[in-house]
Amino acid sequence: MSVDALFTRLNPLLRGILRSPLHRVLSGWLLLLTFTGRRSGQRFTIPVGYQVEDAEVLTVMASEAPKKQWWKNFRDSGPVEVLLRGRKRIGTARLLEPNSAEFRGCAERTLLRVPAMGRIWGIEYDGDTGLSEAQAATLAKSIAAVRIQLDPALR
Fold it and tell me: Which residues pair with 93 in a beta bridge?
């Protein structure tokens, strides 16, 4: 079973923990992302891993992106709500273009922070040499990156 399949099965439990006073166990690396489906109009709430880019910017990486649908809602920027470290925040999410420098930089920062992601993403990453062109191309096909700009006025 893949890591993503395991997390999918655990989603209800993870949502419960992240909404509870026990959120501190997981909220250093998981948040709840709430958005409205672009076609269905239905609201979805999913736990996702995140990284902080700066005080008001988060990035979420979707592994095995071709098998998932949620990130496609952000091909055009859209409103989101996040439950981040026990606090609700609102913001705007947008998909990073897979061949952009912004996408590559995000992937590189993730790999430097969590080198094991290289194995999950199907590459052998070396922090000393960085991403090769071939590795960046592999990642552009297999993962998606969504940048969330939080509204600083609504902290």
Answer: 78, 148
For the beta carbon of residue 8, count every other beta carbon within 10 angstroms.
15
Q: Which residue segment(s) compose the domain that 43 sits in?
A: 3-154
Q: Say whether pTM exceeds 0.70.
A: yes
Count how many domains the chain has.
1
Q: What is the CATH number of the domain that holds 125?
A: 2.30.110.10
92-125 in b/e burial notation, b at 16+ Cβ within 10 A? ebbbbebeeeebbebbbebbeeeeebbebbebeb
| 26 vs 35: CA distance, rounded Å | 21
CA atoms 59, 51, 7, 63: torsion sign: positive
| Residues 31/47, Cβ–Cβ less than 8 Å | yes
Given the structure tokens 């923990």, which residue do they identify?
A: 17
Cα–Cα–Cα angle for 17, 111, 119, rounded to 5 degrees: 85
> Are 30 and 36 in contact, with CB atoms under 8 Å apart?
no
- Indicate the pLDDT class of residue 153, thresholds 50, 70 and 90: confident
What pLDDT score was predicted for residue 10? 87
Distance CA 15, CA 25 (A): 12
